[in-house]
UniProtKB/TrEMBL annotation:
The keyword Mitochondrion applies. Its main location: endoplasmic reticulum. Its EC number is 2.1.1.71. The chain crosses the membrane at residues 51-69, 90-110, 155-175. This is Phosphatidyl-N-methylethanolamine N-methyltransferase. The gene is OPI3.
């Protein structure tokens, strides 16, 4: 065991890989489902044409997967070597407060359908949200979550958590490259249609 050799991360723990798998799986899952919905109304069909109900179902699923991922992360941390030099509860609380504030205020600003991919269901927001926390960062949900992952690793004193946090960061960065242009396209299409409607009147 690398732990006994003074290693910072114990790579022999399968819980580490389960956690990494969940971190990679979640955004992949919701992007595949959301694009299916956008192109073919797959979820809306499943809910007899009720887009709102379909979006709520996806929201609940994504939320549940998020809780599961967090549980796997904490379990992975408990299986890892405790490194006193990496144990910083006060910094951890600051990071957790910042992270959770960003996540919770962006839920509040976007609402349920805005948070959980409503635009892919044709449930669009009237105007882009520009107030806090979106005036601090363009993706407060993702960067808040990443900050909380880092905070948790410092709370537990497990460097393995920092490694998984880097993975979270990379996964969200990749997700944004994929999601942002698509969302912009959805809204550009709506704006164009609205303009044409006005012209027709
Ligand atoms: C969309 O879904 C319908 C019904 O399930 C199916 O017949 C059709 O082939 C699908 N189209 C695409 C592009 O996936
Ligand atoms: C962001 O907006 C809030 C109000 O919604 C404001 O109080 C805050 O100062 C703004 N922050 C920045 C960095 O602009």
């Amino acid at each position: 065991m690398s732990q006994l050799n003074g290693g910072l991360v114990d790579f022999s723990q399968s819980s580490l890989y389960f956690s990494a798998l969940a971190i990679a799986f979640n955004p992949t899952f919701w992007n595949i489902i959301a694009r299916q919905e956008y192109h073919n109304k797959t979820l809306t069909r499943l809910f007899n044409g009720n887009s709102l109900r379909a979006c709520y179902a996806l929201a609940l699923t994504i939320f549940g997967l998020g809780l599961f991922r967090d549980a796997l992360y904490e379990r992975a941390l408990r299986h890892q070597p405790f490194i006193p030099a990496f144990h910083h509860p006060y910094i951890a609380y600051v990071l957790l407060t910042i992270g959770n504030t960003l996540v919770l205020t962006s839920y509040y600003a976007l609402g349920l359908t805005g948070t959980f991919l409503g635009d892919y269901f044709g449930i669009l927001m009237d105007e882009p949200v520009t107030g806090f926390p979106f005036n601090v960062t363009s993706a407060p949900m993702y960067w808040g979550s990443t900050t909380s992952f880092l905070g948790t690793s410092l709370l537990y004193g497990r460097p393995a958590g920092a490694l998984l946090t880097i993975q979270v960061f990379v996964v969200y960065l990749a997700a944004l490259q994929f999601e942002d242009p698509f969302t912009s396209k959805i809204y550009a299409k709506r704006d164009k249609e609205e303009k044409e409607e006005k012209k027709a009147k």
